[in-house]
């Protein structure tokens, strides 16, 4: 793959959260001695991939797999514990907030919950004006106003409603406004965190169409986070499957849906409800997803995998490149047994 | 105009109109508040001006009683001041101290709570421990020490002039942790919401996020406790004045009036204590009733479009 | 022999400050033992209200303003509250989207299950415990004895939902109303829960009403589907026909707007606008402002549910003649005859 043109590149990104609280909370008295225990959530454990200009890379996975954390780490909302994030070949993970400001207008985010992502005390106009005014100090009032109505029209919200408050809009319209806010600064790269999961089916289609139109018109690159595989299939160029903070498989969308390689990807795809399919034959997995606090040794999936052997329990699989664009992290696939 | 119209159609205004307690308590509060603000216009005598009263008129009973005089509706106090006018001025002093102290504690508490809640970590623990310490010191002790030091340092004459701001500061200082805690709690709820993350993605600095995005969304509980706090502050001031640590007799508040009259209750001049007492109780009661209604109606769990 | 449940012309209103609001406007359906009926619609369509109305649990300011609900031998909306309560717990069980709505966080699973048994029948504590264990095995909970000692927060989301189902089974109900039982769960867990519910209807001789927004899920599980829009059933029929040969323009739009319906990357077919607010339901056919096929008559008269060409298939649309897909219909009818 032509790596040199990558818009964004992640190299071994790790994000852990310490949730053990204050020093006093960490101390426990056990078996006659005082010990200090820390509880660490290992949300993202060494993820590497790159995103090409103009593509839509989807990250799928079930709740708790670290996909939302990864999205926020990419945008610098959480500093990574280790690893590098490069935007257009420049490192951005260690920048000060001043230095980061230049990238803020290039990278934007769309959120899941249309009820929580807009400030309830700000009119639509103020919400949309804020990013433009902040990034273009000294911009004229009429230029801002023009920009607001232009973007509002683009997302399909009547500019006449600019003086209204978020609670006067429906969920779908709020999501449009949330998209408008992200587009106000003319970004190149947009992270969409479950942008349609909270919406009804008929509204979902409207928003997906809007996102695809915006991508075409403005040459946007998307990092699309979702658990909904039918959405993923529809809009993605490439798909990355995550499980417990690790990347299982990364492949072009067509390929991942036609020939999934990783056992987890296979199970995930088989469980998607299909319209009108009677007697769905899904792959049953053993047990439940372990917590990211106590990661299993070896391959994180081995406890639930139907193909796991001794090697899977001890050795962490490395992502192997199969045919060029496809990458899979599984010992059995690597051995050619799957 | 649009916002006025919106207000008239709101659930808030609707339930206000329908609730007789809210309507009644707010009307009485508003009336008394206006009277106290415009005291110089409403009161028949200016009781701050020593030339307007005469010691010869001292302890006259209310006008409808046997020895009462037409000039003094509710009688006079021991210095011969018209009790009715003195009460209006006293109410004004009480309102100034109540509102002033609440503004003082609110500003201090909001800034502390907002900073502690948003920044978290060490800043949070340090600020909230200070708040806990402040909260555990009774305001009476603070007041006694402060006014003692003050009277020593500036002399009793200066103290009479500066009593009002001093009381505002003392009562304000003792109650700010309430605001800090309330604001911190709602900041903790708000700061992880997606609109705050959106503001961070835009790159806004901390100050803007705290004051422009988070603060307006924490104002509802602040508004609710403010009503109760005004009543609380007025009562604190009355208590301090009653103990002789508050407003001087020359510029009496309701509390100092009650105290001044208290010594004469047993000699038959009951009205000097009785009428200011009734006024104090009425005023704080309507504020508390209105505050209770406000808390119910603004409670998001009870709120229904 | 009558039906297990027969709902006729059910009407639910909400008494609000500006007058009564009709949430459910005359809906009728029947359900037999072992039958599974899917109630599908977008948020605000009234599907959950229907579920609550059947067990007479509409909370104030809502009330049932008309129609009849016949369950076994009882006319449910004429029963005194005391009698209703015994039916509600005993013969009809309800499963909610959030398991924590049913589970008490401060009591162990065992306490909650045993108490439920004791509340409904005369049994000793150890008998009740045995019943609880039996039901836990029925929902395939591993090591059920251990679970009885655990608190809800110690279990994963999928496990909690299984426990809720086990609790629903404790009194051997004849009818289960499942309101979005898997919406909060991951796909791999969802598949298992749906399979379980479906299987239990057979083995326990129960009827089930499955309330959900997800057409794909219901189409896999239920024999019949009723599609709701703005408080009315606008189409009902065998699942195969609803999914493969829908006749109401809304159902057609809903199915076409699913991301799987179109070629990946192309624009999705969207239904313009959104579901009307209950305060402003359009006159005539409630769907007409969003409908491609609308004619003047749609604005004036409200269409009734009329049989369409397939057996047991009804649609409420004036333009139903224009929506027929002859080839698909013939195929389906042929399959049925074979």
What is the secondary structure topology, with strand pairs?
The complex is a heterotrimer of chains A (338), B (305) and C (338).
Chain A: E1 6-18, H1 23-26, E2 27-30, E3 33-36, E4 40-52, E5 56-60, H2 67-74, E6 82-87, E7 90-91, H3 97-104, E8 107-110, H4 124-135, H5 141-155, H6 171-183, E9 189-193, H7 201-218, E10 221-226, H8 229-235, E11 238-243, E12 246-252, H9 253-258, H10 263-271, H11 310-314, E13 320-321, E14 327-328, H12 331-334
Parallel strand pairs in A: 5-10, 5-11, 8-9, 9-10
Antiparallel strand pairs in A: 1-4, 1-6, 2-3, 6-7, 11-12, 12-14, 13-14
Helix pairs in contact in A: 5-6, 6-7
Chain B: H1 2-9, H2 11-18, H3 20-37, H4 39-42, H5 83-119, H6 121-136, H7 139-190, H8 194-202, H9 206-214, H10 219-242, H11 254-262, H12 271-298
Helix pairs in contact in B: 3-5, 3-12, 5-6, 5-7, 5-10, 5-11, 5-12, 6-7, 7-10, 8-9, 10-11, 10-12, 11-12
Chain C: E1 5-16, E2 19-31, E3 36-40, H1 47-54, E4 62-71, E5 74-75, H2 81-90, E6 92-95, H3 109-120, H4 125-138, H5 144-148, H6 157-169, E7 175-179, H7 187-203, E8 207-212, H8 215-221, E9 224-229, E10 232-238, H9 239-244, H10 249-256, H11 296-300, E11 306-307, E12 314-315, H12 326-337
Parallel strand pairs in C: 3-8, 3-9, 6-7, 7-8
Antiparallel strand pairs in C: 1-2, 1-4, 4-5, 9-10, 10-12, 11-12
Could you describe the 3D structure shown?
Chain A has 338 residues and is an alpha/beta fold. Chain A has helices spanning 23-26, 67-74, 97-104, 124-135, 141-155, 171-183, 201-218, 229-235, 253-258, 263-271, 310-314, 331-334, and strands at 6-18, 27-30, 33-36, 40-52, 56-60, 82-87, 90-91, 107-110, 189-193, 221-226, 238-243, 246-252, 320-321, 327-328. Chain A has an eight-stranded mixed β-sheet, with helices on both faces. The longest helix of chain A has 18 residues, at 201-218. The two termini of chain A are 24 Å apart. Chain B has helices at residues 2-9, 11-18, 20-37, 39-42, 83-119, 121-136, 139-190, 194-202, 206-214, 219-242, 254-262, 271-298. With 305 residues, chain B is mostly helical. In chain B, 41% of the residues are buried. Chain B has a single domain, classed as Orthogonal Bundle (MetI-like fold), CATH 1.10.3720. The interface between A and C is large, with 43 and 44 residues.
């Amino acid at each position: 793959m032509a790596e040199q043109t990558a818009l964004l590149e992640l190299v071994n990104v790790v994000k852990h959260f310490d949730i053990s609280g204050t020093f006093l909370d960490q101390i426990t008295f056990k078996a006659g001695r005082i010990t200090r225990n820390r509880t660490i959530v290992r949300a993202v454990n060494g993820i590497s991939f790159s995103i090409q200009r103009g593509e839509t890379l989807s990250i799928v996975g079930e709740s708790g797999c670290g996909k939302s954390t990864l999205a926020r780490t990419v945008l610098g909302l959480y500093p990574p514990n280790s690893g590098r994030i490069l935007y257009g070949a420049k490192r951005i993970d260690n920048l000060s907030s001043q230095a980061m400001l230049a990238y803020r207008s290039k990278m934007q985010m769309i959120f899941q919950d249309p009820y929580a992502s807009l400030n309830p005390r700000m009119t639509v106009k103020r919400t949309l004006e804020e990013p433009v005014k902040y990034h273009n100090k000294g911009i004229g009032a009429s230029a801002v106003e023009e920009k607001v109505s232009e973007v509002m029209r683009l997302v399909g919200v009547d500019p006449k409603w600019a003086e209204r408050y978020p609670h006067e809009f429906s969920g779908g319209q709020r999501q449009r406004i949330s998209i408008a806010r992200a587009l106000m600064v003319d970004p190149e790269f947009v992270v969409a965190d479950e942008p349609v999961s909270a919406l009804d089916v008929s509204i979902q289609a409207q928003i997906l169409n809007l996102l695809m139109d915006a991508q075409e018109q403005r040459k946007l690159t998307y990092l699309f986070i979702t658990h909904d595989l039918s959405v993923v299939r529809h809009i993605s160029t490439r798909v990355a499957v995550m499980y417990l903070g690790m990347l299982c498989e990364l492949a072009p969308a067509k390929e991942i849906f036609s020939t999934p390689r990783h056992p987890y990807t296979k199970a995930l795809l088989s469980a998607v409800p299909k319209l009108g399919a009677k007697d769905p034959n899904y792959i049953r997995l053993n047990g439940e997803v372990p917590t990211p606090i106590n990661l299993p040794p070896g391959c994180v999936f081995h406890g639930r995998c139907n193909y796991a052997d001794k090697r899977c329990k001890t050795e962490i699989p490395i992502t192997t490149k199969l045919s060029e664009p496809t990458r899979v992290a599984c010992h059995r696939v690597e051995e050619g047994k799957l | 105009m649009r916002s006025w119209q919106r207000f008239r159609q709101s659930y808030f205004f609707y339930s206000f109109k329908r609730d007789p307690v809210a309507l009644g308590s707010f009307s009485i509060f508003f009336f008394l508040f206006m009277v106290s603000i415009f005291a110089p216009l409403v009161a028949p005598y200016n009781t701050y001006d020593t030339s307007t009263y005469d010691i010869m008129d001292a302890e006259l009973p209310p006008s409808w009683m046997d020895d009462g005089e037409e000039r003094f509706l509710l009688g006079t106090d021991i210095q011969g001041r018209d009790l009715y006018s003195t009460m209006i001025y006293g109410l004004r002093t009480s309102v100034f101290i109540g509102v002033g102290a609440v503004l003082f504690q609110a500003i201090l508490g909001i800034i502390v709570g907002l900073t502690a809640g948003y920044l978290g970590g060490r800043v949070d623990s340090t600020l909230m421990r200070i708040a806990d310490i402040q909260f555990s010191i009774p305001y009476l002790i603070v007041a006694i020490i402060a006014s003692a030091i003050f009277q020593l340092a500036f002399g009793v004459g200066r103290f009479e002039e500066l009593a009002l701001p001093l009381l505002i500061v003392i009562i304000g200082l003792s109650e700010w942790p309430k605001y800090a805690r309330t604001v911190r709690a709602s900041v903790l709820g708000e700061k992880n919401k997606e609109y705050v993350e959106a503001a961070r993605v835009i790159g806004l600095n901390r100050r803007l996020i705290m004051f422009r995005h988070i603060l307006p969304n924490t104002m509802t509980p602040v508004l609710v406790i403010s009503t109760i706090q005004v009543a609380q502050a007025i009562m604190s001031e009355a208590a301090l004045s009653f103990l002789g640590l508050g407003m001087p007799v020359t510029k009496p508040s309701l509390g100092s009036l009650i105290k001044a009259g208290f010594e004469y209750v047993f000699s038959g001049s009951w009205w000097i204590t009785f009428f200011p007492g009734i006024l104090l109780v009425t005023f704080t009661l309507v504020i508390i009733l209105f505050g209770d209604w406000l808390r119910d109606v603004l409670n998001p769990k009870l709120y229904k479009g | 022999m009558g039906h297990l449940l027969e709902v006729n012309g059910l009407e639910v209103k909400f008494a609000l400050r500006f007058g009564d609001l009709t949430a459910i406007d005359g809906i009728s359906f029947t359900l037999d033992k072992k039958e599974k009926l899917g109630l599908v619609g977008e948020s605000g369509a009234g599907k959950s209200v229907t579920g609550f109305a059947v067990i007479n649990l509409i909370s104030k300011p809502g009330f049932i303003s008309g129609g009849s609900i016949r369950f076994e031998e009882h006319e449910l909306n004429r029963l005194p509250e005391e009698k209703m309560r015994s039916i509600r717990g005993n013969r009809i069980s309800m499963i909610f989207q959030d398991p924590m709505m049913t589970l008490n966080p401060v009591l162990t699973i065992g306490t909650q299950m045993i108490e439920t048994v004791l509340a409904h029948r005369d049994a000793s504590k150890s008998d009740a415990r045995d019943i609880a264990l039996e039901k836990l095995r029925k929902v395939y909970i591993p090591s059920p004895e251990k679970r009885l000692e655990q608190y809800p927060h110690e279990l994963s989301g999928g496990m909690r939902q299984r426990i809720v189902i086990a609790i629903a089974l404790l009194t051997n109900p004849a009818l289960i109303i499942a309101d979005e039982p898997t919406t909060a769960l991951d796909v791999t867990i969802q598949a298992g829960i749906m399979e379980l519910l479906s299987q239990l209807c057979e083995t326990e001789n129960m009827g089930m009403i499955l309330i959900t927004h997800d057409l794909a899920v219901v189409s896999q599980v239920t024999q019949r589907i009723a599609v709701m829009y703005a408080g009315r059933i606008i189409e009902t029929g065998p699942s195969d026909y609803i999914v493969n040969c829908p006749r109401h323009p809304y159902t057609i739009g809903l199915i076409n707007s699913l991301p799987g319906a179109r070629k990946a990357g192309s624009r999705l077919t969207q239904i313009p606008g959104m579901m009307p607010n209950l305060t402003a339901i359009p006159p005539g056919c409630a769907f007409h402002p969003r409908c491609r096929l609308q004619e003047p008559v749609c604005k004036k008269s409200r269409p009734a549910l009329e049989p369409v060409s397939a057996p047991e298939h009804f649609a409420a649309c004036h333009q139903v003649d224009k929506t027929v897909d002859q080839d698909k219909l013939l195929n389906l009818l042929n399959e049925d005859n074979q």
